[in-house]
Design brief:
196 residues; mainly alpha; 9 helices; 81% helix
Length: 196
């Protein structure tokens, strides 16, 4: 019994080492510029260990992307949940998404390589699972309270999510002086236009 527990911990440590090494390399150089040999060397494991946990490089990338998306989703949820007022929760969460997603080491994985490596449909499904649910819940609560007009929520979620993803991509190449603050202010104006 004890040996099984030790082996399970070792397997999990190996998997974490592979994800950590791949994440660093993908963030620094991009998915296409990183080979499996580099990843296993950085993780200090064998190629066999990699294939024990992941079918291929794309499968490993999927695990990295999932980690990054959940990390950003958690950061957004934490920023939103720090407020009692539903409107402030929405705006704080949206602003935090822009701040979190503009970290260049996340941005390349989450917004540039994600759709390119996994394809739009799979990337979108992962993005929805990680963050769209929170946005939908916030907008539903606001619509039910009459803060925003009652309307179908899924299209609104996709419009806002797409706008924020595009803004995060734009911020990657925008001049650094005040671009994030200006983008957050523009987002605030856009969100206020939804209020009844």
């Amino acid at each position: 019994m004890r040996n099984e527990g030790v082996r399970a911990r070792q397997r999990e440590e190996t998997r974490r080492a592979l994800v950590r090494a791949a994440r660093g390399l993908f963030a620094e150089r991009g998915y296409g510029a990183v080979g499996l040999a580099e990843i296993v060397a950085a993780a200090q494991v064998t190629k066999g260990a990699l294939y024990h946990h992941f079918a291929n490089k794309a499968d490993l990338f999927r695990a990295v992307l999932d980690e990054v998306q959940h990390e950003v989703g958690g950061q957004v949820a934490e920023a939103a949940e720090a407020h009692n007022d539903p409107w402030t929760r929405l705006t704080a969460g949206c602003e935090e998404f822009l701040a979190a997603a503009t970290d260049p080491r996340r941005q390349r994985i989450m917004l540039v390589d994600g759709p390119a490596v996994l394809g739009w449909s799979e990337w979108r499904a992962m993005d929805e699972a990680a963050s769209a649910r929170h946005l939908a819940e916030a907008l539903t609560e606001l619509a039910e309270a009459g803060v925003i007009a009652r309307q179908p929520i899924p299209p609104l979620v996709h419009l806002l999510s797409g706008a924020m993803n595009e803004a995060a991509l734009w911020l990657a190449t925008a001049p650094p002086n005040g671009a994030l603050a200006d983008t957050q202010a523009a987002l605030g104006r856009m969100l206020r236009s939804l209020r009844t």
